[in-house]
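Why do we care about 3D structure at all? Because function follows from shape, and shape follows, mostly, from sequence. That is the central idea of this module. The next example makes it concrete: a single protein chain, its amino acid sequence, and then its structure expressed as tokens.
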Amino acid sequence: MVSRLADGRAARAVLVGTLLLIAVGGAVALVPSLPALIAARAVQGFGYSLVPLTVALARTHLKGATLARTMAVLSVSVSLGAGLGNPAIGLLVDVGGYRLPFLLVTLVGASAAWWVARRVPPTPDCGHRVVLDVPGALVLAAGLSALLLVVARGELWGWTTSRVAVLVVAGIGLLVGWVVLELRTASPLVDLRLLTSRSLLGVNAAAALSGIGMFAGASTVMLQAQTPPPDGLGYSVFVAGLLMLPMALTSLVTPAAGLWLARRTGHRYVLAGGLLLVATAFGHFALRHGSAAEILVSMVVMGAGIGLSYSVMPAVVVAHTPLARTGSAMGSEPGGAAGRRQRGRRRRGVDPGRAHPAGGPRRAGRGFRRGGSVRSGGSAAGRGGVPGGAAGRPTRPHPARDHRRLRCDR
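And the structure:
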């Protein structure tokens, strides 16, 4: 719903409000209680809408090559934040406990909100009114919650228990009902006809699968780095976070190469090549994860793949999406949610107070190999969906016209 609000005049105000919510969540986490910590993390979940919000604002105010470069940087900001944030947060935890990172988040969120309010121009009135599809949002949330709860707790409850069966049936039923509801709604939360159109279906499938790989796969690497020997490396949170740094740096420098290649070969080939690199990285990790050097190799290759694929993915989406649907189109990728649930499920396999992950060392080793293999297969499957959904010729932003008209007519 936050991404949908980015399609209207209040996009800047929504971005400021989201940043303030992140700051408030960090402040709430300073209260020494588990309920406060859970509430803080729930509020900070609004932060996942920052990418579609900023992409929608960029499309409104920028054009041409500047827009393409800006979208490329914004799209890799998640991997950049993970690579830089993990070691920084680990160091803060080692120095001042878990509250110190939340204090930093509070300061950064409030400062960013102040900067956006002062420097980002207001969104022009393009005449399209945003209508929130509240029933659709509630049904979608209920269906996804049921299925993600199964992913998160199914191993603990037992995959064949009645509780899991009921949640699966309920989740699938709610999602089927949501699809019917969205197709019959005049202003749906997610424009399914647009997202499943020939020009966007392959790209959206690739985005979903690569999102699963990036979120869940990177966390599997962190888990391996912190698992006590002999099955893991036994590193601290800070040192384990440093292993993510090459991914961040590589994903920061490769978008320029991706845009250069896209102008000469077409976006779909760059996107497919990036996803193949991500699949290769996780395949390497599945087979070779016994030393820091082997993990660093995986992170460098994965960063290159993320930088290439995510540098062109927003351009393909934006080129086939009306201006009035930019925010909701960029915010409709489900891979991140599934990946985070897989991440949480695998983290529960480790008990910091034990010498080995729960289930014994052999199970831990199989888990890391299986995790890398699944992420590799997901990214490779995403690559397979690209050619059918993205144009073979280079997809360029809309031609530069009068700036005021460009912001409203694209």
